[in-house]
Design a protein that fits this description.
By secondary structure, this protein is of the alpha/beta class. The strands form 6 sheets. Strands 15, 16, 17, 18, 19, 20, 23 and 24 form an 8-stranded mixed beta sheet that branches. A 6-stranded mixed beta sheet has the order 6-7-8-3-9-10, with helices on both faces. The chain has a 4-stranded antiparallel beta sheet with strand order 2-1-4-5, covered by helices on one side. The radius of gyration is 49 Å and the shape is rod-shaped. The protein starts with a strand and ends with a helix.
C-alpha cells in the first residue's frame, strides 16, 4: 500500500520558490492501474519521481506499507527503488554499451544476485514481453517498440510492487502504443501501475483509476481509495509480511534486501563502455602513456647500464684484483679528502682586497694527501694468512716479489737485417733504444719507451684460470712451466711496436724507421730517414713463437769489483759474449687473445713469464754474490748521491748512423725515491744519468712477497674476501698452523686496495644522480598526462549522465556511480601503462640496436619485468587519483536531472 500524505514539493531558484506539489493527499491500492492526467507543468512527473524515490518531498510524508519515509537515508531509498519500484521511461533510457540482456540484468546486479540467477530472471522477463530472440542485440539494433519492451522487462525483472511509467507511449506510433499499453494493463492485474500521461483517451481506455492534477493539486480522482479499503489492505499486507518472515530461513533474514553494485561489476560496465569507444580509449591511453614512456625509458637505460656494470664486475675483478702492497693509499680516506679545503673567513674585510692564501691551501691539501698514504708491514704471518683464505672465495692468488727480470733475460738483437746478432739483456735493449732516440731530432720521445711499456711481467700461477678468459690462437699451451713464456695480444690481435722492439723483434733500423714514419722525417742530418721498404707492421705467429730468450742468474751478470773500488762494488755485464753458463732457455709457447665476452681480463697485452720462473729466480739468486754483499753490508740497495755512495756501473755499445757509440751508466738508489725501472730516461754518451734503484728485491734476493693480488671468483664472493681480510685488523685472535696465536697487538694493520668497489660505487652514484634528475624531469609529463586523463574522465561523466540516472533509478548507490568512473580511469591508466611499457621496450630495442652496432653492447637499455609492472601500477594509481574528482561529481548528480538529459 502506498500513500502520499499532504506532500509538498518546492523548488528554489535564487530567491524564488516554485511550488510543484501543494499538499497532495493520495492513497493507492496494492493492485490497480492509475493514470495521472494533467497539463504540462502541473506536477505529474514530480509526483511520480517522489513516489519512485528519485526526488524528495519538501514536507508531508510518503508512507510505504504503513511505514513513514521521513527518516529514510540514502541507503533506504536505494533499496526501495531496487526492490519496490520499476521505472518505464518515455525515452527508454537503455544503456547503449550493454546488450538487451545486460540492460535487463542491471537491476538484479545491483540487488546482488549471482550471474546464473540474473540471467535466468532476465530471460524470463524478456520472454514475457516477447523478446526471447533479442537477448544479445544492442539497443541501437532495436525498434522503438522493442526498446520500450526491454525497458518494461527491466522494470519488472526484480518483481517490484510498483511500476511507474512516464509517458510510456510518447515516442511510439499508434500500433506499437496499443501493444505496449496492452502489456502494461496485463501487468496492472498483479501490481500497482502508476502512469503519467496527458493522453486522456489512453487513460480512459486502460486505466482503472484516473487522477487529475492542476497547478500541483489533485482536482479529481475517479476511484479514490476509501479508508475502509485502506484499512483492510493494510491488515492483509501485515499478515502477508508476517507469513513471509515465518517462512524465511535465518540465512535469508541475515542477508536481507540490499542494493549494492560490486566494484567488479562497475569495472565490467566501464570496460564495456570503453570498448564501444576503442579509438578514443587507445588515443587517451597513448597520450597518458607519454610520461610513463619517459620515466620507463630512463629507468630502462639506468637499469641496463647497471646490469652492464654488474656483468662487467667480474671482468673488472680480473683486471683489478684486490691488492696488498707495501705502499698504498687508503681509498676511503682519499674519497673523503677530495672536497674543497676549508677557507678561513677571518681574512675577509669589507673595503679591502682579501688575500686568498694559495700557499695555505696547497699545504693543507698536501697534508691531507700525505695522511692518505699507507705503509703496510707485510710479514710472513700475513702472507700465510692470505694463503689460508678459503679456496671457494677466489680464482687465483698472485704473489709478487719486486723482481726485475729484464736484467737477467737476454735475447738476440740485430742492428740491421742479416747482420750478426748480439745477445744482450732486455733492460739494455731498452736503454739502447732510448739512447738511439736521444741521438735524433725527436729525442723528447725517448722517455716513452720505458713509461708506456712493461717488457715482461709475471702471470698468475693458475693456467686454467687464464684459459677461462683467453683463447690460445697460436702455440701449444698457456705458459705454465718455469722455462715457458707467452705473448698476450688485444682483441684486434695487436701488440705494441715499443714492446716488440724491446723484445728484439725489430732490428735497430726498423725501429728507427717507425719513428721516422711517425714524425714524417724523410732525411736526418746523418742522411737517414723514412724508408717504406723497412716498414714492418705484421709478424707471423711463427716469428713470434720462434724467438729465443735466455735467463741467466746474477752471478753470471754482476762482476765483483769492491776489492778494487769500494764505491763501485759490482759491474753489470749487459752483453753475453759467449762466456755465460747455467742459462735457462725460455720458449714462447703460446699467443693468447681475450675471449670475445671478456672486457677486462686478468692480463693486459704484453709478454708474461710464469710463477715457476719466479720461484726459480728466488732459489738461484738468494745466495748470489751481489745479494750476499748487500746482506753483509746490511743494505737493501745501492745508494748514489752526486759522486758519493756505493753503486753498480755498466758500459754498453750501440751504433748510430754507422758510428759505434759507447755509454756508461750508474745503477744506484736514493732513499727519497720510489722504486723505478732499471735505466729509465738515462742519456747516452755525455748525458747525465738518472738515479735509479737496484735492491735485493730487484735481484731476486728477497723471498717474502711484497705484493699480494687476490682474484675473487665473482663480485659477491669479493665481499667475502674483504671480510676475511678485514678480520686481520679486528680485535680477535688469529690462529694459523705453524704460527703462535696472534693477538691484535701482534699484528700490524694492513690496508688493501679494492679499486673495483670504488669504481663501481662512483659509477652507480653517478647513474643514480642522473636517473633521479631525469625521472624528476620526465615526471612533469606524467603529471600532465594524469591531469589530462582527469579531464577526459570528466567528459565521460558528462557523456554518461543519463546512464547515471538509470543506475540511480534502479537502486544504484552514489558509491556505485563513483565506482564506475573510478574503474574507468583505472582501466585507462592500465591501458596507458601497458602502451607506455610496450613503447619503452620497442624504443629500448632500437636504442640497443644503434648502440650495439657501435659498441657491441646490445643490452644497454633493459627495463626489468618487475619494474615494468611497477610503472603500470603507478600509471593506474595516478589515473585513479585523477578520477576521484570526476567520479565524485558523477555521484552527486541529481538522478531526476540526469534522466532528463538528452
Amino acid at each position: 500500500m502506498l500513500r502520499l500524505k499532504k506532500v509538498v514539493k518546492n523548488y528554489y531558484v535564487g530567491d524564488n520558490v516554485i511550488e510543484a506539489l501543494k499538499g497532495v493527499d493520495l492513497s493507492f491500492r496494492k493492485s490497480e492501474f492509475v493514470s495521472i492526467l494533467g497539463p504540462s507543468g502541473c506536477g505529474k512527473t514530480t509526483m511520480l519521481n517522489i513516489i519512485g524515490g528519485l526526488d524528495q518531498y519538501t514536507s508531508g510524508d510518503l508512507i510505504i506499507n504503513g511505514i513513514s519515509t521521513k527518516k529514510f537515508k540514502d541507503h533506504d531509498w536505494d533499496v526501495y527503488r531496487n526492490h519496490r519500484i520499476g521505472f518505464v521511461f518515455q525515452s527508454y533510457n537503455l544503456i547503449p554499451h550493454q546488450t538487451v540482456l545486460g540492460n535487463v540484468e542491471l537491476a538484479l546486479t545491483i540487488a546482488g544476485l549471482s550471474k546464473v540467477e540474473r540471467q535466468e530472471k532476465a530471460k524470463k522477463a524478456l520472454d514475457r514481453v516477447g523478446l526471447s530472440d533479442q537477448y544479445y542485440k544492442r539497443p541501437n539494433q532495436l525498434s522503438g517498440g522493442q526498446s520500450q519492451r526491454v525497458a518494461i522487462a527491466r522494470a519488472l525483472v526484480n518483481d517490484p510492487e510498483i511500476l511507474l511509467a512516464d509517458e510510456p507511449t510518447g515516442a511510439l506510433d499508434s500500433v506499437t502504443s496499443v501493444q505496449i499499453m496492452d502489456l502494461i494493463k496485463e501487468i496492472a492485474n498483479e501490481r500497482l501501475v502508476i502512469m503519467v500521461t496527458h493522453n486522456a483517451d489512453i487513460a480512459d481506455k486502460y486505466s482503472t483509476r484516473i487522477v487529475k492534477l492542476l497547478d500541483g493539486k489533485v482536482i479529481d480522482d475517479s476511484n479514490p481509495f476509501s479508508e475502509e479499503e485502506e484499512k483492510k489492505e493494510v491488515e492483509e499486507i501485515i499478515a502477508s509480511i508476517k507469513k513471509i518472515e515465518e517462512n524465511e530461513t535465518k540465512k535469508e533474514k541475515k542477508k536481507g534486501e540490499r542494493a549494492k553494485m560490486s566494484f567488479f561489476t562497475a569495472f565490467i560496465f566501464s570496460m564495456k563502455n570503453l570498448l564501444t569507444k576503442k579509438g578514443r580509449t587507445i588515443m587517451t591511453g597513448f597520450a597518458g602513456s607519454i610520461g610513463i614512456i619517459g620515466i620507463s625509458l630512463v629507468l630502462a637505460i639506468s637499469s641496463g647500464v647497471s646490469n652492464f656494470i654488474v656483468d662487467m664486475q667480474d671482468d673488472l675483478l680480473s683486471g683489478n684484483p684486490i691488492e696488498i702492497t707495501e705502499t698504498t693509499y687508503d681509498l676511503n680516506a682519499l674519497m673523503g679528502n677530495l672536497g674543497p679545503v676549508d677557507v678561513i673567513e677571518g681574512y675577509k674585510k669589507d673595503g679591502y682586497i682579501s688575500v686568498d692564501s694559495l700557499v695555505e691551501t696547497l699545504i693543507k691539501r698536501v697534508d691531507d694527501i700525505s695522511a692518505i698514504a699507507v705503509k703496510n708491514d707485510i710479514d710472513e704471518a700475513y702472507v700465510n694468512y692470505v694463503k689460508l683464505m678459503p679456496e671457494e672465495y677466489y680464482s687465483a692468488i698472485d704473489l709478487g716479489y719486486g723482481i726485475d727480470v729484464t736484467n737477467n733475460i737476454f735475447t738476440d738483437f740485430h742492428i740491421s737485417t742479416g747482420d750478426t746478432p748480439q745477445n744482450i739483456s732486455l733492460s739494455s735493449l731498452t736503454k739502447i733504444y732510448t739512447s738511439l732516440l736521444n741521438e735524433t731530432e725527436f729525442k723528447e720521445y725517448s722517455s716513452y719507451i720505458t713509461s708506456l711499456t712493461t717488457i715482461m711481467q709475471q702471470a698468475p700461477a693458475d693456467a686454467d684460470y687464464i684459459s677461462t678468459q683467453y683463447d690460445l690462437i697460436a702455440g701449444t699451451n698457456v705458459a705454465n712451466a718455469y722455462n715457458e713464456v707467452m705473448l698476450v695480444v688485444n682483441k684486434e690481435t695487436e701488440a705494441t711496436d715499443l714492446l716488440l722492439a724491446q723484445l728484439g723483434y725489430y732490428t735497430q733500423e726498423e725501429f728507427l724507421n717507425i719513428a721516422y714514419r711517425a714524425t714524417n722525417t724523410t732525411e736526418t742530418s746523418g742522411g737517414s730517414g723514412y724508408d717504406p721498404d723497412l716498414d714492418k707492421m705484421n709478424f707471423s705467429y711463427e716469428e713470434i713463437l720462434g724467438k729465443e730468450f735466455y735467463y741467466y742468474p746474477n752471478d753470471q751478470l754482476y762482476n765483483e769489483n769492491y776489492m778494487i773500488d769500494p764505491f763501485t762494488p759490482f759491474t753489470y755485464n749487459y752483453k753475453n759474449d759467449g762466456s755465460f753458463t747455467d742459462g735457462v732457455p725460455l720458449k714462447v709457447v703460446g699467443i693468447l687473445k681475450p675471449k670475445k665476452e671478456v672486457s677486462y681480463g686478468i692480463l693486459t697485452r704484453g709478454f708474461y713469464y710464469t710463477k715457476a720462473l719466479t720461484d726459480h729466480i728466488l732459489e738461484s739468486n738468494k745466495d748470489s754474490k751481489i745479494v750476499k754483499y748487500m746482506e753483509t753490508a746490511d743494505i737493501d740497495g745501492f745508494t748514489y748521491v752526486a759522486s758519493q755512495g756505493q753503486k753498480v756501473t755498466y758500459t754498453y755499445e750501440y751504433v748510430f748512423d754507422g758510428t759505434l757509440m759507447t755509454a756508461t751508466g750508474i745503477v744506484g738508489a736514493d732513499s727519497s725515491m720510489a722504486l723505478l725501472d732499471l735505466f729509465p730516461g738515462m742519456g747516452g754518451g755525455s748525458g747525465t744519468p738518472s738515479i735509479v734503484s737496484l735492491s735485493k728485491r730487484h735481484l731476486g734476493g728477497n723471498d717474502l712477497a711484497n705484493r699480494l693480488s687476490i682474484y675473487p671468483k665473482n663480485f659477491d664472493l669479493k665481499n667475502e674476501v674483504t671480510k676475511y681480510l678485514d678480520a686481520w685488523n679486528d680485535d680477535g685472535i688469529i690462529n694459523m698452523e705453524g704460527f703462535p696465536p696472534l693477538s691484535k697487538d701482534d699484528r700490524s694493520k694492513i690496508t688493501y686496495t679494492d679499486s673495483v668497489t670504488l669504481i663501481v660505487s662512483l659509477i652507480n652514484n653517478m647513474i643514480n644522480i642522473v636517473t633521479y634528475a631525469l625521472v624528476s624531469f620526465t615526471a612533469l609529463s606524467l603529471l600532465v598526462s594524469t591531469v589530462m586523463i582527469g579531464i577526459i574522465t570528466y567528459v565521460s561523466v558528462v557523456e554518461r549522465v543519463k546512464e547515471i540516472g538509470v543506475i540511480r533509478s534502479l537502486g544504484g548507490r552514489k558509491k556505485d556511480v563513483s565506482n564506475l568512473f573510478i574503474a574507468e580511469t583505472g582501466i585507462i591508466g592500465f591501458v596507458a601503462g601497458v602502451i607506455g611499457i610496450l613503447v619503452t621496450y620497442l624504443l629500448s630495442g632500437l636504442i640497443n640496436l644503434i648502440i650495439g652496432s657501435l659498441s657491441e653492447i646490445y643490452t644497454l637499455a633493459a627495463l626489468p619485468w618487475w619494474m615494468a609492472l611497477i610503472m603500470i601500477g603507478i600509471s593506474v594509481i595516478l589515473t585513479l587519483v585523477s578520477g576521484v574528482i570526476p567520479a565524485r561529481a558523477a555521484a552527486k548528480k541529481d538522478p531526476v536531472e540526469a534522466l532528463r538529459t538528452e
